[in-house]
Amino acid sequence: MLQRLQRLFPPRPAEPEPPNGRVTLGDVLRRDWFELWYQPKIDLRAKRLVGAEALVRARRPDGTMLSPGSFLPGASEADMLALTERVILTSLRDYEDCAALGASIKLSVNVPASAFIKLPIARMLREERPTAANWPGLILEVTEDEAMHDLKIAQEIADELRALHCSLALDDFGAGYSSLARLRQLPFSELKIDKSYVTDCHVDRTNAGLCETIIELAKRFELKTVAEGIETPHESHKLQGIGCDIGQGYLFAKPMAKDQFVSLLGRRMVGAKRPAQKPRRTAAAALRGLFAET
Ligand code: C2E
Ligand code: MG
Ligand code: MG
User: Is 292 inside any structural domain?
Assistant: First the structure.
């Protein structure tokens, strides 16, 4: 796999900054500024780290980091496809480092809908899958407004992925206009509730109602729910109380570089072998404690 990554994306000598100061995805890929960072996903009931979302970052030669919001908008389709291939291959390689620690976690990657048609994703996964015997597969996140319109193709893709233990998640749910009927038809196994609904859901009655409805609906369709952008213990507590399965947000941890994520996992694995400690004060405090060093 490493060979394929190096063949497709050979290391290049550092190039100067783009002349006009505006960095594009093409610049990031060509200048090899690409990095893949990870943000933990937490089982809200068990208070356990169960996965992580891979998020692209760009590291400039002076060490400063760029977020995708500054270089993804307006990117060409060809560059988005190159990014997707690189993200998938890198996440498969990084999973090997997690598996070496004995960690059982599932990684998620963001995939533009067009990539399902234009990239041989299933073949890549089949050929490059990690060698660890218990590889749990990958979750491929597709945003709600991009989700495939051709249901037959979507179903075929989901079936192909399922055979490889991989599944589809509907990202940013609530930010677009999916009809309930469509949600039932689409072959997703995870639904990510958009941050705009999560914010203040413990006091904002509209958001609370929307989160409850989404979670109830997801359960009916046998989808796991992931709340995005949890920033406070109150939001986390509320979401757990209404049955949300998984949480992701700055309350638990911000996205972090791969080495930092692997070292966090390592500490968690060491912690798991320690004798049971006295129960901590509150669930949220316990979770903050989990990630206090990040
Ligand atoms: P997303 O897939 O919905 O990712 C979640 C975004 O929310 C991430 O922003 C994450 O850093 C941010 N976030 C997580 N928790 C919190 C929180 O508690 N508070 C706040 N304010 N933000 C939080 P990021 O990394 O800037 O990514 C933005 C978007 O860019 C992603 O949204 C995704 O649509 C896109 N993106 C990121 N990486 C990739 C990639 O590798 N490929 C593709 N195709 N798109 C990507
Ligand atoms: Mg996402
Ligand atoms: Mg999202």
Answer: no
